Amino acid sequence: MLLFSVLAAAIAPGIALLTYIYLKDKYDSEPLHMVIRVFLLGFLVVLPVMIFQRGLTFWLGDHTLLTSFGVSAGVEEFLKWFVVYHIIYNHTEFDEPYDGIVYAAAVSLGFATVENLLYAWAGYSSIGSLVIRSLLPVSGHAMFGIIMGYYLGRAKFSEGRSSKFFLALSLLFPWFWHGLYDIILNTLTQDWIWFIVPLMLLLWFLGMGKLARANSRSPFRVVKPEEEVNL
């Protein structure tokens, strides 16, 4: 019974956050089987991430800045971005800006869910610590995914240099925020909570704003006459 409770606590946060993001798509929801498939692809990202991170740690050594921005944030965000870009970006189902958010969040939360399961399996996490992980790393991965997906959506429906610019931002911004998150945890062993909580609140504020803006750019959105005047 305890094992079931721990596993449920490890899996539930990722699914709950992905469900929330999926349901916030106001105009043209993605096929559920596609979202589940991409979520499961996030599971597969864990293995290459572990391999690359282990190799980079041996090569670069244990330096806090390099570990936070290079080994941790750099590897994880690049591989998640790589999956979304090469599998989803040119897919026919990617037909509105919000879709980038759904699929990038799905990969990120699939990855975060496996991380939680590994912690639980290794015996490092009680139910209480898994709740904390749902409030911090799992929701952090969700916000990194939203930011990545927002700019992928901007890139997809832009042209020329603007498209390349937003494509670069889709990797740079989640990498920066993830690296900042990690450097706080890796350097502040005592007072980290006073910095990480404001950071998470900021990320949620940015993330919710990007959900709204992506929805507002949907080609399936019907603009009311009174809205046309304001535009």
Automatic annotation (TrEMBL):
Molecular functions per Gene Ontology: peptidase activity
Keyword set includes Cell cycle: no
Its EC number(s): 3.4.-.-
Membrane topology listed for this record: Multi-pass membrane protein
Keywords: Cell membrane, Hydrolase, Membrane, Protease, Transmembrane, Transmembrane helix
Ranges annotated as spanning the membrane: 6-23, 35-53, 65-88, 100-122, 134-153, 165-186, 192-212
Transmembrane helix listed as a keyword: yes
One Pfam match: PrsW-protease
Compartments in which it is found: Cell membrane
Stored InterPro entries: Peptidase_PrsW_arch/bac, PrsW
Broad EC category: hydrolase
GO BP term, pick one: proteolysis
Record-stated family: Belongs to the protease PrsW family.
Primary role: Involved in the degradation of specific anti-sigma factors.
Record protein name field: Protease PrsW
Species, as recorded: Paenibacillus enshidis
